[in-house]
Design a protein that fits this description.
This protein is an alpha+beta fold and 356 residues long. It has helices spanning 16-23, 25-33, 61-64, 68-75, 88-103, 192-212, 233-240, 275-286, 304-308, 337-355, and strands spanning 2-3, 51-52, 58-59, 107-108, 121-126, 129-136, 139-146, 154-163, 167-177, 182-184, 187-189, 218-225, 249-255, 266-269, 299-300, 313-318. The strands form five sheets. Strands 4, 5, 8, 9, 12, 13, 14 and 16 form an eight-stranded mixed beta sheet that branches. The protein has a two-stranded antiparallel ribbon with strand order 1-15.
Length: 356
C-alpha cells in the first residue's frame, strides 16, 4: 500500500530480465521454499500429467491443495528479505509465483522470450528511491521517496498469466502487488498483510476456478504487480503494454492488505462508482460484509492507473489496513486466515458475475 510522496511511475524496457529470471527459476524457487516445511516441492521440473484445462499446460493436482496461508508463509519468510522491488528476495518471490502459475496450468501472458513464446514475466525498470520514515495514524511507518534520478534504474517484473475464455477480446483482471519494503536499518519488513495476504487471496480464487473446470466466457487474468510500494510502477508498465485490449477489460479487482481488522469490514478505493465497485459491493453484501468506497487520504494502490485510463477498477482492502503497515510487525501471525478466506470468497463471486 503506497503513500504518495512525490513518486511517479517510470517505464523503460529491460529486455534481459525475463530471460535471466527464467534461467534462475529453479534455484530461486528452491531457495524461496526450503525453510517452509508445508510447502510443496516447487522446483521447475516438468509438470506431471494431470487434468487438462484450457489451451495451455496441465494442472498438477498438488498445487490445488495449497492455501492462501501457505502463500503468505512462503512470501513473508526471512529468506525473501522483505521482497523489495528489484531485489534478489523479490526475485525469489517472482519465481515462486511463476511456479504456482505453471503448476495451475495457466497461460503465460508476459513478454516474449528469445524463442518467441510468452513468458510469465513482464519486465520494466524502477526509478531510484530512498527509504524514509513518516508518522501516520497508527504511528511511524517506512515509506519510499524519489531518489537521485541520475542513478541507474533497477530492473523488476510483473508476473502475468491467464485462464483464457471463449471471448478473446474480453478480460477480467484479478491482481495484487507482491513487492514490499525489504530490509532497512537491520530490520526485516515481512509484508505478510501488505501484501502477501492479497497475493494468497487471488491465488485461492484461481485454484477454486480451476477445480471447477469450467471455461470462462471472458479471460480471467492473474496479475502480480511489482514496485507498487515505489509508486505503482508495475501496474503503470502494464497499462503501457497490456497485452490485451484495455477497452476489453470489464473490471480490475485488486486485492491489497486484506487480512486484518474486523472480519466483515472491508473498504474500497476507486475514483468513483464503476462496474468493479458495484460488483464487489453487491457480492460483499451477499457475504454479510461491507465494502464502502472510502477517501484515500493520500494513499493509493494499483487501481490508480487503471482509473486514470478509464478502466473500471477498484482495490479491496481491510478497513483498518494501516495497522502495523510498513512495520516489522507485519508478520504472518498478524494476518487472520478467516478474513483472507472471506476476501477470496468475495473476489471469487465478483469474477463469476462478470467472467462466467
Amino acid at each position: 500500500m503506497k503513500f504518495l510522496a512525490g513518486l511517479s511511475a517510470g517505464f523503460l524496457p529491460w529486455y534481459g530480465w525475463p530471460e535471466t529470471l527464467k534461467k534462475v527459476d529453479a534455484l530461486a524457487v528452491k531457495a524461496s521454499v526450503e525453510n517452509f516445511p508445508s510447502a510443496v516441492n516447487t522446483g521447475s521440473a516438468a509438470i506431471p500429467a494431470g487434468k487438462a484445462f484450457g489451451a495451455f499446460g496441465r494442472v498438477n493436482p498438488s498445487y490445488l491443495k495449497r492455501t492462501a496461508s501457505d502463500d503468505i508463509a512462503v512470501l513473508a519468510q526471512p529468506a525473501l528479505a522483505g521482497r523489495r522491488a528489484g531485489s534478489a528476495g523479490e526475485g525469489k518471490a517472482a519465481a515462486y509465483l511463476q511456479d504456482q502459475m505453471r503448476g495451475l496450468g495457466l497461460q503465460p501472458l508476459g513478454d516474449r522470450g528469445a524463442d518467441g513464446q510468452r513468458l510469465y514475466t513482464q519486465a520494466f525498470t524502477i526509478y531510484p528511491v530512498v527509504e524514509e520514515f513518516a508518522n501516520f495514524y497508527y504511528g511511524r511507518h517506512l515509506t519510499f521517496s524519489l531518489g537521485d534520478p541520475k542513478d541507474l534504474r533497477t530492473p523488476s517484473a510483473n508476473i502475468l498469466a491467464g485462464l483464457m475464455g471463449t471471448r478473446a477480446a474480453e478480460s477480467v483482471i484479478l491482481s495484487a502487488h507482491y513487492d514490499h519494503m525489504g530490509i532497512f536499518e537491520g530490520n526485516l519488513y515481512p509484508g505478510a498483510n501488505d501484501n502477501a495476504s492479497g497475493v494468497g487471496s487471488i491465488l485461492d480464487v484461481m485454484r477454486r476456478l480451476i477445480k471447477e473446470g469450467v471455461r470462462p466466457k471472458s479471460n480471467v487474468l492473474l496479475a502480480f504487480w511489482s514496485a507498487e510500494e515505489m509508486g505503482f510502477v508495475g501496474s503503470s508498465a502494464f497499462i503501457k503494454n497490456p497485452g490485451v485490449p484495455l477497452g476489453g477489460i470489464r473490471a480490475v479487482f485488486n486485492a491489497d492488505t486484506v487480512g486484518n481488522g474486523s472480519l466483515h469490514e472491508f473498504a474500497l478505493w476507486a475514483d468513483g462508482e464503476n462496474t468493479a465497485v458495484r460488483t464487489l459491493q453487491a457480492v460483499a453484501r451477499e457475504c454479510n460484509s461491507s465494502a464502502p468506497v472510502v477517501p484515500n487520504h493520500g494513499y493509493d494502490s494499483d487501481q490508480y492507473y487503471f482509473n486514470l485510463n478509464h478502466v473500471p477498477a477498484t482495490t479491496l482492502m481491510a478497513r483498518t489496513w494501516l495497522e502495523k503497515n510498513h512495520t516489522p510487525q507485519d508478520v504472518p501471525d498478524f494476518v487472520n486466515p478467516q478474513k483472507v478466506a472471506l476476501a477470496s470468497d468475495i473476489l471469487y463471486k465478483a469474477v463469476h458475475r462478470l467472467a462466467f
